[in-house]
Amino acid sequence: MIQFKVLLSIAALILSASGSLAQTASPYAGLERRSIKALSDNEISDLKEARGMGLAKAAELNSYPGPLHVLELRRELELTDAQRVAAESLYAGMRDRAQPVGIKIIEAERDLDRAFVDGTISPAELRSRITAIATLQGELRTVHLETHLAQRSLLTSEQISRYDMLRGYGGNRTPHGSQRHGGG
């Protein structure tokens, strides 16, 4: 009977330990199969297509609209033909500037990943690669934020307020400065 209790206790410990192991699995489990470990397929696609990826939240959420969303809301915002053409030009220019930077980020992340796979990375090389990636990420974010800055200057304060409301940003806020920005 004592041996049975000991075996039962050991079995309980093993089950408890295996349950604990399952509960501590990394949230990264499965990501090791990615072609570039630091980037999801969606992130790679976003970088290739110059999508915003939330890089312009500082502008977007502070009454600096982006041209893509302005174009999507052109009827509701009652854009003039001149504003529409200007927004289209801004968006095309942003894409032309952002796509090459996005591709460089993908390549830099791929090279970093490869250096880890090969086991050849040194602390100095790591720092250099990370600095280069951070510089590219900053450049990409700047492209997106500059585009929001330029877009805002093409809209009236009323259009900006309407944009914020339509996008669900806390109702009808008054944009900074409340002056008419142009685009008429």
Helix and strand layout, with pairings?
Layout: H1 2-23, H2 41-49, H3 57-60, H4 67-72, H5 74-77, H6 81-118, H7 123-152, H8 157-166
Helix pairs in contact: 2-6, 6-7
Short description:
With 184 residues, the chain is an all-alpha fold. It has helices spanning 2-23, 41-49, 57-60, 67-72, 74-77, 81-118, 123-152, 157-166.
Task: Describe this structure as you would to a colleague.
The chain is an all-alpha fold. Helix content is 67%, strand content 0%. The longest helix is centred in the middle third of the chain and has 38 residues, at 81-118. The chain starts with a helix and ends in an 18-residue tail after the last helix.
The counted number of beta strands is 0
Cα distance spanning the termini? 92 Å
Major sheet description: none
Work out the oligomeric state of the chains in this entry.
single chain
Along the chain, the helix and strand elements come as HHHHHHHH
